[in-house]
Each structure stands twice: as structure tokens, then as C-alpha cells.
Write a structure and sequence with these properties.
The structure is a single chain. The protein is an alpha/beta fold. 34% of the residues lie in helices and 25% in strands. It has ten helices and 14 strands. The strands form two sheets. An eight-stranded mixed sheet has the order 5-4-3-2-1-12-13-14. The radius of gyration is 18 Å and the shape is globular. It comes from Mycoplasmopsis bovigenitalium. Its EC number is 3.1.3.-.
Amino acid sequence: MNKLTYFIDLDGTLFDTNGVNKVSLKNQYAILIMKNFANVVLSTGRSYQDLRVKQVMNQLAINDVICSSGAELYIDNKLVFSTKIELETVLKIIEFANKNKISFMVYDENGDHLFLNNNFVWWLANKFLRKWIKTIDISKNFDINNFTNINKFSFGFLSVFKTKKMLKKLQAFLGDKINAYISTRGHVIEITDKKANKALATEQYLSIKQIELQNTIHIGDSMTDACLKGYVGKLVAMGNSPAGFKRIADEVAPKNKRAGIHKYLIKK
């Protein structure tokens, strides 16, 4: 395959509006135009079961997606591979979360499951997020037997400072077992098995599709995308990306808000 292949992140990249549709009409137009001469793959921290992922795939007629920060790869809407987190590591992650009173999301083959350590926040989540999340429960009720092939965790924090502090502690505790990156403007830590990230999933995709490295471009906004350096022909950081990512990127695009993807792609 000689035509260009674009790997495009969702949150902070393609997503540029709030409301029913997270992708503006301008961004939708840009992707649909690009698809006339390029292959487009979604590359996201969200799971394949996520309703927003399904929505974008339907809107843009995209059938290939790297999900759960690289823990899953779907081609033509079929699961090609999934890298689960080992049971011992799962239990250690839960131990760490509970010890540090961290709310967390669990991703497995059945969907997304949110566990909270505050009863009032749990009540709010049930009231406003039930449509989007398969399970919403209190952290102490987590039972490993209720899940099948867990492939990702995410920790959420109100403070960017605390996110950075917890990342250092987590890496000291489990650094040889996991990949952990900060995303969502510094408020989330995304955790996968050591053998899973967006770069490794992209490498697998290129091998299956027989795509040459120089014909690939990845566009993203967080450190979960930074690992793509050297795994694609060009790595593009959105203007809203952290400084560390922008420093290593081959190119910096406009900020995602107000159709940043449209501004970047159409100028090409």
C-alpha cells in the first residue's frame, strides 16, 4: 500500500466540540476529503465499545482502530489482537489505587467500568454518566472475577500536580510491568501492559497491511502519542499538546479547538 496512512487520536485531537457530536462538521469534512487519497485509522485511549468511538467510526466510515491506548487493534471491525494485563499486575494496580484513594476506570472486553472512592461522586456519576459507562461502582466493591481480559486502567485526578506525583509513585511500584502515560491535559494516567502501547499496535498494523513507514503520519496531543516517535514517518503534535511532546514531534499542528484538524489537513 503506497498511499498515505493517517493515525488520528480522538480526545484533544479530532474531538473539538462539546455536545452530541464531538467532531465538528469542518473536521468531519477534512477527514472525508482525506479518505479519497489516504487511509485513516483512529488511534485512541478509548475502548472499542465506547459510544463515542462507535459514533465517529459511523460518521466517517472508518473500520480500522487502535483502542485502549494500543492494547487492542481492530481491522475491518474485527479484533486482530488484544494485550491483557497479567492478573498479578491487575491486583497490584488495584492495591495501589485503593492505598492512594484513587478513582479508576477498568477496560476489558465487555466495556468500561468506573470505580469511585466517594459516595457522592458515585451518585453523580450514576445520574449523568450511566449512558456512557457499563459499570459504575464504589472502589471497595471491585471484584476481579467480574472481568474478562482486562487490558487497560486509567486513574483520574483533579490536580495536575497530583497526577505527576502519582505517576512517579506508580512507576516506582510497577514500572517494569506496565506502560503509564499522562493524558487529558494532565488529569489522567493511562496504564497498559508493558507489551502494549500505541507505537507497538501501529507497528503491528503496518506489518499486517504491508505499509511502508515513510507513508505514515500520526497526529495526537498527549504523551500516549509521543511513543510513536520513530514508529511512523511523521509524528504531529497538536498545539494543545504538552511541551515535552511538542519538543520531540516532527511538526506542530494548530490547537484542536475550532477545527484544528481541518486547519492542519486542508492546508496540506
